[in-house]
Amino acid sequence: MQRAVLRRLLSLPSPVLRLLAGGGAVHRGGRTLDPRLQMIAALSGRAATIDLMSPDEARRLNASALRVVSGRLEPGVKVEHRTLPGLRADLPARLYRPHDQDPAMPVMVFGHAGGGAIGDLDTCEAFCSLLARIVRCPVLSVDYALAPEHRFPAGLDDMLFAYRWARDNAASLGAAPGAAMIGGDSIGGSFAAVIAQDLKRSGEAQPALQLLIYPCVDLASETASMTTYAEAFPLSRGAIDWFTGHYLGSEATPTDPRLSPIRARDLSGLAPAVVVTAGFDPLADQGELYARALRDAGGKVVYRRYDSLAHGFTAFTGAVPAADEACREIARLVREALDSAAA
């Protein structure tokens, strides 16, 4: 019912949505927020902010909210529930395989958003199915350990384990043998960036591609977007502090490259990257700076910023057409990058 009501509301003309959301268009830093996101933000503003919640409360609210705004599974994509033999315990995962899978494509290992403290396999289900259909590759979504029950680096280590498992078992998934991609949004994108660096340090081959969607790559950062979009929806500066407080252990150092990969001494020799940022996001500058740093180090980088969208837009494809369009373009960019590397 909530989903149907929201979709009918969001079908109203943009001027009406802006009026109902409290007035005119929202402008920040030379960008204009999508009117549907503006309306959703106005409706969400009536609920308690995440920094006043316990992790369990935040997880329940996040799951409930995403059910209303998320898109549906793509047609022609089969979903399989998997359990990987993890580091501490069995690691739940979800495999998305398109009916016309290209056996030359590597498997994508994907980490969902949630600041390391919330989120699950449902968080990125629509996007993973979209990625699988457009790239024509299997996508393995990983339910990594969450903080504060399992603080840094538990979730990151789960993702690295899952990447190695997928790479070593790629042929059984119908993918190119011995190859894999690594990707994610928000902290999942941060995990992907760190994993590429970890593999370099351990002397292993690089992923076929790294997909970094609005990643946090510097926990010690004070860039302009942190101030300009400090009160943005759904990720505010207060929410970032809440996530960081739960995710970091007492001995963690924000400048550690495994927490802030942009601070690594050498960014050369890393996998080709597709880096994506949202305009209305405290982390907007971070992804752009990391894309630039990778390019300056000799890496192949495709960078896109979606000015009218906000952090977390991959989960809003069922309610915000511009988010759906952006996600489809991102999937096409991944496929194009892979085809270019193979040419």
Q: Could you give a short description of this structure?
A:
By secondary structure, this protein is α/β, with parallel strands linked by helices. It has helices at residues 2-10, 14-20, 35-44, 55-69, 125-135, 154-168, 187-201, 224-228, 237-247, 284-296, 321-342; strands at residues 27-28, 31-32, 77-84, 91-98, 107-111, 139-142, 180-185, 210-213, 273-280, 301-310. A hairpin with a 6-residue loop joins strand 3 and strand 4 (91-98).
Could you explain the architecture of this structure?
- It contains 11 helices and 10 strands.
- The longest helix has 22 residues, at 321-342.
- The strands form 2 sheets. An 8-stranded mixed sheet has the order 3-4-6-5-7-8-9-10, sandwiched between helices. A two-stranded antiparallel ribbon has the order 1-2.
- By secondary structure, it is an alpha/beta fold.
- The model has no long low-confidence stretch (mean pLDDT 95).
- The protein has helices at residues 2-10, 14-20, 35-44, 55-69, 125-135, 154-168, 187-201, 224-228, 237-247, 284-296, 321-342, and strands spanning 27-28, 31-32, 77-84, 91-98, 107-111, 139-142, 180-185, 210-213, 273-280, 301-310.
- Helix 2 runs parallel beside helix 3 (35-44), helix 5 crosses helix 11 (321-342) and helix 6 (154-168) crosses helix 7.
- The N and C termini lie far apart (49 Å).
- The protein has one domain (2-342): Rossmann fold.
- It is globular, with a radius of gyration of 19 Å.
